[in-house]
Specification:
The protein is built from 15 helices and 14 strands. The protein has 405 residues and is α/β, with parallel strands linked by helices. The protein folds into 2 domains: 145 residues, 2-Layer Sandwich (Nucleotidyltransferase, domain 5), CATH 3.30.420.40; 190 residues, Nucleotidyltransferase, domain 5 (2-Layer Sandwich), CATH 3.30.420. The model has no long low-confidence stretch (mean pLDDT 95).
Length: 405
């Protein structure tokens, strides 16, 4: 049973094809620069690479190119498109309506479009991918899996903002949280690695990449997370400012003569690591510059590490303890210095890092990097949002096929 998982950007199309009997990833690919000469790169189960470049006009052309690659006689895995039983789409924002995977209908697509108000950088691209995918794969179910769904369990005191109640209710202004499929996958894997039931643990998952968020997972449920109504809240990130005094927005608008859209563009695309360092949004570039003595690069690293530590501390308090802290995503998996810096500030709860294991983690591999005597376990777990989307898509199929009582 093959399920195709799609993650669409404004000019890109990421896809992974899974054989769900055994949950084997048999193909993964990326189509870039949609609307121009689009390079496609695809790898099969053996790691063999296929590269194609074709002119595309839109996401539908991107899907056609991806299907062509998936059906490649030597490096593909499909004889025809009918082998795919369903398509699972990553959707960033489901507001307060969607807490489960859902069969995509015209009503759902309208909701995704409406929720672009909360995720203007993401939902429109997700919707473009859904429409194009349904055009190419016409006769099979398309299922939406929402980044916000895992955080539906947040208690009201964790998601409520201190603004007039009537306004919050009228416009559904609240914390929603993101990276939900990643946090869920990583937390579940943490429990499995530790050999304990998922619903028996208090886990803090640290998804740290160009986009970054932390989540407190208490007994299998998300109870707090750093991102808010939009992905702008929380940690300083690659190009996002993270949390700050809201008055800064008005101050910048008045002093720099910026419109609302312009200041949001500034905070979403020109701030964070990029804005602080003046070097790059890529942590690797900043670490290199810091090692060469660049003061702004050092400041950027210090600000980022401090915020990670601060949020971890607050989540320990929120859950009245913690059993494990797990790092994931590009920076979380590949920045031993950050992990060491964070864990140094957790010695008060009995955290002891195994320095050698921390330094010697292998990219893409799971590892417990705390010392055996550490009271709280520290792990590195590569995320796999796509398999979670595939599982949720399959769960939706089964729920609709199950006989009703």
């Amino acid at each position: 049973m093959k399920i195709l998982v799609i993650n669409c950007g404004s000019s890109s199309l990421k896809y992974k094809l899974f054989e769900m009997n055994g949950e084997v990833r048999i193909l993964e690919g990326l189509v870039e620069r949609i609307g121009f000469e689009s390079p496609l790169t695809q790898k099969n189960e053996k790691g063999e690479k296929l590269e194609i470049t074709e002119k595309t006009s839109n996401h539908s052309d991107g899907f056609r190119l991806a299907l062509k690659a998936m059906q490649h006689p030597k490096l593909g895995a499909l004889k025809n498109a009918d082998e795919i039983v369903a398509v699972g789409h990553r959707v960033v924002h489901g507001a307060s309506k969607y807490r489960e995977p859902v069969l995509i209908t015209p009503e759902v697509m309208k909701d995704i479009d409406d929720f672009s108000l909360y995720a203007p950088l993401h939902n429109p691209a997700n919707l473009a991918g859904i429409k194009a995918g349904m055009e190419i794969f016409k006769d099979i179910p398309h299922v939406g899996v929402f980044d916000t769904a895992f955080h539906y369990s947040l208690p009201d005191y964790a998601y409520w903002y201190g603004i007039p109640y009537e306004l919050a209710k009228k416009y559904e202004i609240r914390k929603y949280g993101f990276h939900g499929t990643s946090h869920q996958y990583v937390a579940e894997r943490t429990a499995r690695i530790l050999g304990k039931p998922f619903n028996s643990l208090k886990i803090i998952t640290c998804h740290i990449g160009a986009g970054a968020s932390l989540t407190a997972v208490e007994y299998g449920k998300s109870v707090d997370t750093t991102m808010g109504m939009t992905p702008l809240q929380g940690l300083v990130m690659g190009t996002r400012s993270g949390s700050m005094d809201p008055s800064v927005v008005v101050f910048l608008m008045e002093r720099e003569k910026l419109t609302g859209d312009q200041v949001l563009d500034l905070l979403n695309k020109k701030s964070g690591f990029q804005g602080l360092s003046g070097i790059s949004k890529d942590m690797r570039d900043i670490e290199k510059a810091a090692s060469e003595g660049n003061a702004r690069a050092k400041l950027t690293l210090a600000v980022h590490a401090y915020q990670v530590k601060k949020f971890i501390g607050s989540y320990i308090c929120a859950m009245n303890g913690v059993d494990a802290v797990t790092f994931t995503a590009g920076v979380g998996e590949n920045a031993p210095e950050l992990r060491a810096d964070v864990c140094k500030n957790l010695s008060f709860i009995g955290v002891k890092l195994d320095g050698a294991k921390n330094r010697e983690t292998i990219r893409g591999k799971e590892a417990v990097i705390s010392a055996p005597e550490s009271r709280v376990k520290i792990l590195v777990v590569p995320t796999n949002e796509e398999i979670m989307i595939a599982r949720e898509t399959l769960r939706n199929l089964h729920s609709r096929l199950a006989p009703s009582n």
